[in-house]
Design goal:
Oligomer: single chain
Subcellular location: Endomembrane system; Membrane
Strand content: 15-25%
Keywords: GTP-binding, Lipoprotein, Membrane, Nucleotide-binding, Prenylation
Protein name: Ras-related protein Rab
Function: The small GTPases Rab are key regulators in vesicle trafficking.
Shape: globular
Family: Belongs to the small GTPase superfamily. Rab family.
Largest sheet: 6 strands, mixed
Distance between the termini: 36 Å
Helix content: 25-40%
Length: 210
């Protein structure tokens, strides 16, 4: 069994407007702590989370990208080689949700997987402990938004109350591994199986929950 043991390293982007709680989500997920007084991230910051996943080790390199970076050219450098992304908005600030599509478009325009597909992205409706807005109360509308914009799922999260952050991360890792397996299979010669290059894409409905 030891010979089959694998370790995976995945770069994950955490993006969204300034002040939506990206740093707080990462600190909660990696270090299990919360502070209301984090300084605004300048440029990019990093954190590492190690998971045991199906008897394998998964290392997540989380890139905490400053909210103002979308307006510069550095995101292309920051996005390079990422396998997945969280896009975060603040449920108490509608303008931060309006920016979600811009962040997703920026991500998709600058980063694709080896097979040409977009990287897996999960939408986080953060600060749900402070109350829900009209949009997130309408789950059908949120699921429609995610499908139309290429998200694999969405979650209401709270870094303060530690709500749904682990669940959202597990959803993203599941889709990253599935995409990686698709890429590996697509590199196998056609003589092995004529179905290998067929499109097996789609969304995981189980991720569409908060």
């Amino acid at each position: 069994m030891q010979n089959n043991y694998k370790e995976h390293l995945y770069k994950i982007l955490v993006i969204g407007d300034l002040g939506v709680g990206k740093t707080s989500i990462i600190k909660r997920y990696v270090h299990q702590n919360f502070s209301p007084n984090y300084r605004a991230t300048i440029g990019v910051d990093f954190a590492l989370k190690v998971l045991n996943w199906d008897q394998e080790t998964v290392r997540l390199q989380l890139w905490d990208i400053a909210g103002q970076e979308r307006f510069g050219n550095m995101t292309r450098v920051y996005y390079r080689e990422a396998m997945g992304a969280f896009i975060v908005f603040d449920m108490t600030r509608p303008s931060s949700f309006e920016a979600v599509t811009k962040w997703k478009e920026d991500l998709d325009s600058k980063l694709t997987l080896a097979n040409g597909k977009n990287v897996a992205a999960v939408l986080l409706a953060n600060k749900c402990d402070q109350g829900r807005d009209v949009l997130t109360n309408n789950r059908i509308q949120m699921e429609k938004f995610c499908l139309e914009n290429g998200f694999v799922g969405w979650y209401e999260t709270s870094a303060k109350e530690n709500m749904n952050i682990d669940e959202a991360a597990n959803c993203l890792v599941k889709h990253i591994i599935a995409n990686e397996n698709d890429i590996i299979q697509s590199e196998v010669p056609d003589t092995v199986s004529p179905q290998l290059n067929s499109d097996r894409g789609g969304t995981c409905s189980s991720c569409f929950k908060s």
